[in-house]
Design brief:
The structure holds two protein chains of two kinds. Chain A has eleven helices and 13 strands. By secondary structure, chain A is α/β, with parallel strands linked by helices. In chain A, helix 3 packs parallel to helix 5 and helix 5 packs parallel to helix 6. Helices cover about 65% and strands about 10% of the residues of chain B. In chain B, strand 4, helix 5 and strand 5 form a beta-alpha-beta unit. Chain B starts with a helix and ends with a helix. Classes of the chains: A alpha/beta, B alpha/beta. Chains A and B meet through helix 1, strand 4, helix 2 and helix 3 of A and helix 7 and helix 14 of B.
């Protein structure tokens, strides 16, 4: 597969703060690469350097086979967190502007969006605005689609529809780079790059990121009390129905807190638990 | 209440540029305008027409400054802007033709000639050219047209890029295959049309309501207006690219508009200003538009007299437009590893980057 975007050893400092620290990443056509990270992990900074919106302090950026350039941008679709739409223009006017800038015909809209073509974007719900932003970004059939938290603030149904669009785009041969902190969305990506404090702490498919991580699942009559005791001992524990799942630890450590009679077993970690474990390890090492 | 006061003070303290403007600007304005706000005329340039009056004209007291004599038509001398007063011998009587487009200079000339006669000196007929009744409106309306263009051009346009940056759409523009010049022209074109209509309306209504004459060639005024408008719009865009928010943009725009109101010769004569302040005036576009508009509308000035204001306006338009496109280019061009210093126009990204 051809690399549509590639960054090598990318670094960005803001004064004494290192926002991105030696990141390697590539996106090929026909795949969805997810950038996963907590707030402040450096996802947006990384994307903005990739697009040429922000100069890197060090490292190498390649967009569609060369450095970010106006020519490369012609094949790029970008939906920023703020959506990049003109709130005082109608849907049709926004789409017409984007299409004219890229020298293509205005994007076709789904039937339900057609009803809103003459509505000023500022009057639309966030979910509809995001769909319009998608339509605008896809109007010129980009080879690379970059989405910065595209489903933030959108309900489950809207998120599902937006992900359908992402998969359709990939099926048409484009590559997609998407940032998210929703685990169910991350699981829809072909590959993940997990960032913490600007560094890659895990990368690969979902299965590779989870790897052989295990969690200790505790059966507890009083979940709240068990959680309090585990967290009091400095362990990371999440409630799961009548059970508590303890991340990045061993059964021995859990028994040391809850007593030798605690009912527990080791089970495979979920992506979210593997993510928490990876980020937790990185922060503990800081 | 104290919490509110404290919060506001912290916000003001953090906005360093606004704070600096609030402290430095009043002092600066006081000094500059103190030297500019003078109605008294320090010098009246006189050109004697014909040898017969040349030697007699040398006897004229201050504030007259007598220049080299000429044989040209005295009105043409004024039309070219070579003098404020041209004295000729007409029918055996010395006649002073006074340039009525320079209101205070013309009034001072009338008073000075009356004073000479009252002191027992020669009696000189005074003829006020171009604006015989010395109407204030005739002098102000041409320049006011330019002032409207400054307001529309600089003040309103200055908000354009800031608004894009605050709405997050500038980032979207930056990833589109648009050239900096495309964005510049796109930004200024609508205001260009509106301001052009404004100019025609202001000059038309001004002429109709106040009887301001239009004696010259409208083509020269049209060309000059286009150049002036391009400069004003370019200044607005430039302000927009260096401002972090709309408040800063308005403050900076006012800093360019106010000096043009007071130092361009629109209200106070340039000749009355201290030399340093006058040179500030020469750097302002409205100064040259004012010279051009008065020259065309009131004096029917020849192209040779209009060449300087037209040339200066053209130079200003090129310089300002180039700077504006360059600034746009730094905002929109793809950033590379060599661009390690954050462009000031992008500095508002820093907190968002670090915290997102």
């Amino acid at each position: 597969m051809t690399a549509l975007a590639r960054v090598v050893g990318l670094r960005r400092d803001f004064g004494d703060t290192r926002a991105v620290d030696g990141v390697d990443l590539d996106v090929a056509s026909g795949e969805v690469v997810g950038l996963l990270g907590a707030n402040g992990a450096g996802k947006t900074t990384l994307i903005r350097m990739l697009l040429g919106l922000l100069p890197p302090t060090a490292g190498h950026v390649e967009l569609l086979g060369g450095p970010p350039s106006p020519a490369a941008r012609r094949h790029l679709g970008y939906v920023p967190q703020g959506l990049g739409l003109y709130a005082d223009l109608t849907v049709q006017e926004n789409l017409a502007f984007q299409a004219a800038a890229f020298g293509v015909a205005p994007a076709r809209l789904d039937d339900d969006l057609c009803a809103a073509v003459d509505t000023v974007v500022g009057d639309l719900s966030l979910g509809v605005r995001r769909r319009v932003a998608f339509a605008a970004a896809l109007g010129h059939a980009p080879r690379l689609l970059v989405l910065d938290e595209p489903t933030s603030g959108v309900g489950p149904l809207g998120r599902s529809e937006l992900w359908d669009t992402i998969h359709d785009t990939v099926d048409d041969g484009a590559g997609v780079l998407v940032t998210t902190h929703y685990m169910d969305e991350a699981e829809q990506c072909d590959r993940l790059v997990v960032l913490s404090r600007g560094r890659v702490v895990a990368a690969g498919t979902v299965a590779e990121v989870v790897g052989d991580d295990m969690v200790v699942e505790v059966v507890a009559d009083d979940v709240a009390a068990a959680l309090a005791r585990l967290e009091g001992a400095g362990l990371v524990a999440l409630p799961a129905g009548r059970r508590v799942r303890v991340i990045a630890t061993s059964p021995t450590s859990v028994r040391a807190v809850l007593g030798p009679d605690a009912t527990l077993e080791e089970v495979p970690a979920t992506l979210e638990e593997a993510f928490i474990a990876a980020v937790g390890h990185d922060r503990a090492a800081a | 209440m104290w919490a509110m006061v404290l919060k506001e003070m912290r916000q003001v303290r953090r906005d360093r540029r606004t704070l600096a403007m609030m402290v430095v600007l009043p002092v600066l304005l006081l000094v500059v305008f103190g030297y500019a706000a003078r109605f008294d005329v320090a010098e009246i340039r006189v050109v004697p027409v014909g040898d017969q009056v040349a030697s007699a004209a040398q006897q004229l007291p201050e504030p007259f400054t007598v220049l080299a004599a000429t044989d040209d038509d005295p009105v043409d001398v004024l039309r070219r802007g070579d003098a404020d007063v041209a004295i000729a011998l007409e029918g055996g009587t010395p006649t002073a033709h006074v340039d009525g487009s320079e209101l205070f200079t013309a009034q001072a000339s009338q008073q000075a000639f009356a004073g000479i006669a009252a002191a027992g000196g020669p009696s000189i007929d005074v003829v006020v050219e171009f604006n015989p009744d010395l109407e204030t409106s005739a002098v102000l309306v041409p320049g006011l047209g330019g002032l409207i263009l400054v307001f529309v051009g600089s003040l309103i346009t200055s908000l354009g890029v800031v608004r894009e940056r605050q709405a997050g759409t500038l980032e979207q523009l930056a990833v589109m295959p648009l050239r900096a010049s495309d964005v510049f022209v796109g930004k200024v074109a609508p205001y260009f049309v509106v301001a052009s209509v404004d100019l025609v309306v202001v000059l038309g209504v001004g002429s109709w309501l106040f009887g301001v004459p239009f004696n010259g060639n409208p083509a020269w005024l049209a060309i000059g207006s286009l150049l002036f408008l391009f400069t004003a719009l370019g200044i607005g865009v430039l302000i927009s690219t260096v401002s972090d928010n709309q408040g800063q943009a308005i403050q900076l725009a006012l800093m360019t508009v106010l000096p043009q109101v007071l130092l361009s010769g629109l209200i106070f004569p340039l000749s009355s200003m201290a030399a340093g302040v006058r040179w500030i005036g020469y750097l302002l576009p409205l100064t040259w538009f004012n010279v051009l508009a008065r020259g065309v509308m009131l004096k029917d000035a020849p192209l040779s007299a209009l060449a300087l204001p037209l040339g200066v306006l053209a130079l200003m338009a090129v310089v300002v437009s180039t700077l504006a496109v360059w600034r746009f280019n730094t905002e929109l061009r793809p950033a590379g590893p060599g661009d390690t210093d954050l462009d000031p126009a992008r500095r508002q990204d820093v907190p968002a980057e670090v915290t997102s």
